[in-house]
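Our preliminary data section would be incomplete without showing what the modeling component actually yields. Below, a chain of 218 amino acids is followed by its predicted structure, encoded as C-alpha cells that our downstream tools consume directly.
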Amino acid sequence: MSEVVRVLLADDEALLRGTLRLLIDATPGLTVVGEAATGREAVELAEAREPDVVLMDIRMPDLDGIAATEQVTAASDPPRVLVLTTFDLDEYVYRALRAGASGFLLKDTPPPRLLDAIRLVAAGEALLAPSVTRRLITEFTRVPMTRRGSGRLDGVTPRERDVLTLITRGLSNTEIEQHLHLSRGTVKTHIGRLMMKLGARDRAQLVIAGYESGLADG
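Predicted structure:
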C-alpha cells in the first residue's frame, strides 16, 4: 500500500460520488484516484489506477457490485473492496463478502467513521461488525449443509478451530482472549496461521470460511 491511501469510488449516483470525493480529497493521507458509474467501469479503473481501496456500491448498471468485486479481487495484487449498502440487512452483503470484499459500510455512515473505515481496510483489517455478523450467521444457517465446504478445515488444529469458531460468531480478539483464556499474542498467532492455512486475506474471509464449514451453527 502506498503512503497515501488511493481510493476508487464506484457508485451510479453522481451526487454521492461527488460528496465522497470532496470528503476524501480533503482528508490528509487519502486521495480519490477515479470514479466509476458502473461495475464494469469499476473493474477497468481498478486495473488502470491501482487503488488501495475500492468503495463499491452493490446495485449498479452493466455489472453489479458483487460481480465487479469478484473480478477486482481476482487480480494478482488486488485492492481491498469496501462495499457500500443502503441497509445492513441487505440480502447481497453475504454474497459480496463471499466475492472477496473486506467489509461493508452503510451509505449513511458518519464521515469520520467512513474515513476510519477506509484506513482500516487499507491496512489489511476487515470491517465486519459483530451485529451484522450475527445477522449473516442467521441467514447462512438456513443454507443446507450440502452447499457448504466439507474439507476446508483439513490441517487446522483443534485450538485454531476454536478461534475460528469465535471469529465466525462475531467475537473480537479481546473477547476471544477472554473466552479461551489466551494471551493477545497467542490469539494473533492463531489468526495468522488460520489465514495461511485457509488462504484468507483478512478477517472477513475467515468468517466466510467458518460459515462454509458449519462453525456458525449451534
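Strands lie at 5-10, 30-36, 53-57, 80-85, 103-106. The longest strand covers residues 30-36. Preliminary results of this kind motivate Aim 1 of the renewal.
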